[in-house]
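Technical appendix A lists one of the benchmark inputs used to test multi-chain prediction within the project. The record comprises four sequence entries:
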Amino acid sequence: MSARPPFIPLVDVQMEQPGIALPINRAGIKGIKMPLLVQDRQEGSQATIADVDLAVDLPASLKGTHMSRLVEALDNFDEVLTHTSLRRLLGNIRLNLLASCAFARFSFPFLVRKAAPATGKPGRVACACVIEGKLDEHGQTLVLRTATPVMTVCPCSMAISSVGAHSQRATVSLEMGIDGLFWIEEFIEISEVSASSAVYSLLKREDEKMVTEKAFSNPMFVEDVARNVSARLLEHPRVLWFSAEVESLESIHGHNAFARIEHDKTKRN
Amino acid sequence: MSARPPFIPLVDVQMEQPGIALPINRAGIKGIKMPLLVQDRQEGSQATIADVDLAVDLPASLKGTHMSRLVEALDNFDEVLTHTSLRRLLGNIRLNLLASCAFARFSFPFLVRKAAPATGKPGRVACACVIEGKLDEHGQTLVLRTATPVMTVCPCSMAISSVGAHSQRATVSLEMGIDGLFWIEEFIEISEVSASSAVYSLLKREDEKMVTEKAFSNPMFVEDVARNVSARLLEHPRVLWFSAEVESLESIHGHNAFARIEHDKTKRN
Amino acid sequence: MSARPPFIPLVDVQMEQPGIALPINRAGIKGIKMPLLVQDRQEGSQATIADVDLAVDLPASLKGTHMSRLVEALDNFDEVLTHTSLRRLLGNIRLNLLASCAFARFSFPFLVRKAAPATGKPGRVACACVIEGKLDEHGQTLVLRTATPVMTVCPCSMAISSVGAHSQRATVSLEMGIDGLFWIEEFIEISEVSASSAVYSLLKREDEKMVTEKAFSNPMFVEDVARNVSARLLEHPRVLWFSAEVESLESIHGHNAFARIEHDKTKRN
Amino acid sequence: MSARPPFIPLVDVQMEQPGIALPINRAGIKGIKMPLLVQDRQEGSQATIADVDLAVDLPASLKGTHMSRLVEALDNFDEVLTHTSLRRLLGNIRLNLLASCAFARFSFPFLVRKAAPATGKPGRVACACVIEGKLDEHGQTLVLRTATPVMTVCPCSMAISSVGAHSQRATVSLEMGIDGLFWIEEFIEISEVSASSAVYSLLKREDEKMVTEKAFSNPMFVEDVARNVSARLLEHPRVLWFSAEVESLESIHGHNAFARIEHDKTKRN
């Protein structure tokens, strides 16, 4: 293809002086897919496919980041994603890219095994999860996001209608600063018990009856679900701060309803 | 920028012989946005923003299409989008690109004004619409797609539960070959009256009560809605063929349910 | 539908005491579509279709927000969206929902008229814009987001290859706290002049030649574009704080490259 | 939850007569996620996460499908997805739902291992794949879709510009009727060799130089890529019919360019 022999060193443009000497908060790659093992409370680990972003900061004196080294760091990562393996990955990135701060985001579907409430038949429900880590000279910070589908029954509709009440699927989206170890399943369960009902993949008639009746005995606004979740996160010893947003696909509307509570335990209120 | 004077003709690579002499069904542009006027039964026309695809066929003897002429044709199009203005646009494209077949697709949100059922308060609900036209030596064919949000109440859940029944938002997605004139609103209404209830943007308590009670007096599976819609489309004089798909965001599941009926009146069955 | 006469007051569940007395940061609606007029520097205003979120805060003592009043406030809003009309909308929401804080987000495509660089032929390029406003007892804060497509040519590829250099479409995504008046066009232009080249809808051959040559005379990493944009935003008198992210759809990779600079002028660094 | 004892049979609403006696082409579930093993030419199999649709037809005499049996069939499916295991799954669905036609669609990311062209360093590129099967009394039909990212360099821009040429990422989207066995990798390779260059995840400077130079020695319109791919699919013994669409994220435009060739070998032309 090229007449130039491969051993002649190619110029490293990234190391040049930039035209404008501004430091960059994050430079890196987005949307690279990889197979990933994540922790599973029941099975030890779960195989999934993650969409990954990796980045470092860049000082004012360098024109560009060596992005191929980020891809290399990812290709060399074959551990179960945990608090500690993530720290190793971020540590390697800091080292190999000579960066003071390294950042990684893993987005993946997490499949939760769930027995149907009456028949006990097994099924799986998918939750969208994100694990973010940042490592700098002050140590590692960890952010977990989970998006859990649930069911809500409208208390207003129930109170004013002579029959029925509108219900709908809703999503409980948590974003949390986490201190150390955690199980994704914990936060999915917190989301589910805070709503009118959990959702399931497999429901036989006996199960559908039970889910319907349970949900109608627990009518909740998105505001109620947001408060229920938040009360549990406030007490959770590993949660440093959180944003809990509940968005319901209102069945009587073409638009959604939502409620969000934010709290930072690390700040005096 | 360039030393070459602008009046020296630049080579027209598109007109060259291709390496492989295969005819191309469609070559063109995708995802260009433009302001668009579409027909509105009540107001005459409605201003929206469309996402547009334009294409032509290409004979085996030509390397490429002159895509900039497609953009020009679109920039010159300032009429309300109708059966006849679309034919003019496609005719111009055939002419300017020396093509035997011209194709256009306009995707846009269509806003339907809707009074709340009890208070009569006004509101708007958005439906996703697509109008496709194809013009060749046999004339113009027209395809309309509408995606209308509706509400379904589950008849099974209602029959087996001691209280309530799960309900959810669903989408009625129609794809139809249309003969001549049509109103988008007709097909949105057909979609809405075929479900447990229409959805609304503005509902006061009296309205919410009425919508809930109406929906619970009309429990329907996605199969029921698909059949209701199809029975109406079978009788519609302008509909040549259709696919009617109903997909419900099941409130007890993390996944959706769907039913689809396809029918082609132009074929003997 | 219902035997209950409409003048008997229906219970207002929203006004009840919640089970858990936590204040809610935001409760409201998401994803309601409406026609919207936004400011256009050349034409005065531009008609678009917006996707709108509206919300208020909710004290610990109330179970739910009256979401229908948010829809009403929006239906009554028929002004060009400006700094001042947004304040009126938010003021009405605070009043009608008895809230201390009101929040609105309008997301819409903004179409920029742009002449081709050599032939001067007119065209339009769409930018995704978001205007957010928040009004509480401390006054109104305004956030503008613009996502502008641009072109980048890779300086590394150019330096090391015997011919050519890979180029690609990139998006400059700005998020900015704005003090008072602004033109969306200003920030789109800042984004475009900071990249290897702007993009266009209509380019004849003379134009394509000019764009290619201009872009290849301005090779830039995403880091370069982020710095160029940021240098301009640092000097902009209306910008209080910003995040400038550039993401390129790398043509040699299946993933993207990005760089982000954040700066808050209201804080001492 | 319910006073009704679980052994009293619950009414089976699905088995009732529908109000409108129309047969339904497809009724089932959409968007259920599951771990899936797919065939991998090098490793035997590859673990991925699939998004699954399952459906059956429904006669005019039955009100609804037993959708929970579709979920059960999927939960019991733990084989590598092949031509023959898919037939078993569809056969079970036909049997358990008493249907004459069963349909399944699996959508999943497929990761292709790829060595960098100069350094040979390993990497992975994700392709979006869909495998669809339909089983009725006439047997099984199989449809494969692959979406492969590639690179294109514009021949027009190269011919008319004094330096460079715009390049961009493009996607080669194939939809094919397949007769029997197939490797996904075959069609990804056909897509890649038909473009200006393949894309890679990991490219060191020597590799980037080689990719750039190779791509610039193979300038291609989307029309060229569509023809190249189609010529190969026309000769492929397992491909019964195909649609080959190439869409490029034009780096000089805000919109995309595309070309599509369709061919059905089972029909006389």
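Chain B touches chain D through 55 residues (CB under 8 Å). The mean pLDDT of chain B is 95. Comparable benchmark entries are summarised in Table A2.
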